[in-house]
Write a structure and sequence with these properties.
The structure is a single chain. The chain is α+β, with helices and mostly antiparallel strands and 283 residues long. The protein folds into 2 domains: 7-160, NADH Oxidase, CATH 3.40.109.10; 172-282, NADH Oxidase, CATH 3.40.109.10. The chain contains 9 helices and 10 strands. It has helices at residues 7-13, 27-36, 65-70, 94-111, 125-131, 155-163, 172-175, 194-201, 238-256; strands at 53-59, 82-89, 115-116, 138-139, 143-147, 176-178, 212-216, 222-228, 260-263, 274-282. Helix 8 (194-201) links the parallel strand 6 and strand 7 (212-216). The two termini are 23 Å apart. The relative contact order is 0.16. The model has no long low-confidence stretch (mean pLDDT 91).
């Protein structure tokens, strides 16, 4: 599909919204989103490695006190009436693919002027699994509320953003490297790929941990995508985050007419503490 605005502008505009106007989507927007959720023309570089991925738009009206109590968002989300909820069959690259697809949907919502917010942990997983009849062989990595939002953020939302430093991003030298993880990548080394890397840098991530790392081959225009190896409660989320970063790179490259292909083929780069995911090779 085509976006109404530049994808670069949309990525820069996208921000997590935790407060909503407590009203349902208008019929035109709802039908458009439902059609989009069929995923007819959307593929990710991980598509060939995964099983079925599906999304549904479900309404959980906040004015129903029973449902509100069940949401499990602990007041982090207020006023949301509708959610995009997805499930994907278990496989090695299920989370990476899901991350790509859901970020695509979120960028479309942003383009429509609607608010969203990645939720990977603070929601009632059992409730939402039941709403979409999630099967035993499926996982439900994340959901997002979707809807219109007030211009001003409420105090609690401002505090959350401040705590996780939501508007801060790591500098280039912490994220992007040349040949190995000992040599930070200079912007002068990439030229036309600068904007692609910057759109990755601006991507959302769980807890704003920004776990993606990219290593460029100095002899060729090949970029290898890695994630930090993490443990504890954040362990499930970096694969989703790499899907988001790949989505940003992919859509930006398409808009700029920079042709390349994705390939999963681990390079011979010492990578202790990092996990290789995928490479992009310019054609």
């Amino acid at each position: 599909m085509k976006f109404n605005k530049s994808i670069i502008e949309i990525i820069k505009e996208r921000t997590s919204r935790r407060t909503y106007d407590a009203k349902l989507l208008d019929e035109k927007s709802r039908e458009y989103i439902k059609e989009l959720l069929l995923l007819k023309d959307i593929r990710s570089p991980f598509s060939e490695y995964v099983g079925k991925c599906r999304f549904e738009l479900i309404a959980i009206p906040e004015f129903d006190p029973k449902e509100k109590k069940k949401l499990g968002t602990y007041g982090l989300i207020l006023g949301a009436q509708e959610f995009i909820v997805g499930a994907i069959e278990r496989s090695e690259y299920a989370r990476e693919h899901f991350g790509y697809m859901m970020e695509y949907l979120i960028l479309v919502a942003t383009d429509m002027g609607l608010g969203t917010c990645w939720l990977g942990g603070t929601f009632n997983r059992g409730l939402f699994r039941s709403k979409i009849n999630c099967k035993p062989d499926e996982i439900m990595p994340a959901i997002t509320p979707i809807g219109s939002f007030p211009e001003k953020r409420r105090t609690k939302e401002k505090v959350i953003r401040k705590v996780i430093k939501a508007d801060k991003r790591f500098p280039w030298e912490r994220l992007f490297f040349k040949d190995d993880f000992n040599n930070p990548l200079n912007q002068d080394d990439v030229k036309k790929h600068t904007i692609l890397l910057e759109m990755v840098r601006l991507g959302p991530s769980a807890g704003n941990k920004q776990p993606w790392r990219i290593v460029k081959d100095s002899n060729k225009d090949i970029f290898h995508f890695y994630i930090l190896e993490v443990t504890g409660r954040y362990k499930p989320f970096p694969p989703l985050d790499i899907g988001i970063s790949v989505c940003h790179w992919d859509l930006t490259a398409e808009e700029l007419g920079i042709k390349g292909k994705w390939k999963i083929s681990k390079p011979k780069i010492p990578s202790e503490g990092f996990e290789y995911k995928i490479s992009w090779i310019e054609e």
